């Protein structure tokens, strides 16, 4: 079940990556729902999205330890 939530989160983040505000909100939701090791994987995934859309860089503030 948890893995399904991670995949769902990645799908949602891909779909809202056009809007920085929505993206940041979804990142915050993901941090509440995902397991610690999934959050580490999510950071890697978000880094790849940021390379495609540098405006999303401001959402990294939520991923700091």
Structure description:
The chain is globular and about 30 Å long. It has one domain. With 65 residues, it is an all-alpha fold. The protein has 3 helices and no strands.
List the helices and strands and how they pair.
Elements: H1 2-15, H2 20-33, H3 36-52
Core attributes:
65 residues; globular; single chain; mainly alpha; 0% strand; 3 helices
The residue-averaged pLDDT reads 92
Beta percentage is under 5%
Global structural class: mainly alpha
Which sheet architecture does the biggest sheet show?
A: none
Number of domains: 1
Q: Tell me the overall shape.
A: globular
Low-confidence stretches: none
Provide a compact summary of the structure.
This protein has 65 residues and is mostly helical.
């Amino acid at each position: 079940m948890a893995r399904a939530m991670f995949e769902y989160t990645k799908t949602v983040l891909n779909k809202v990556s056009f809007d920085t505000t929505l993206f940041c909100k979804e990142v915050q939701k993901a941090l509440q729902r995902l397991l610690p090791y999934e959050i580490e994987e999510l950071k890697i995934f978000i880094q790849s999205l940021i390379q495609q859309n540098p405006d999303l860089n401001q959402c990294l503030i939520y991923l700091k330890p």
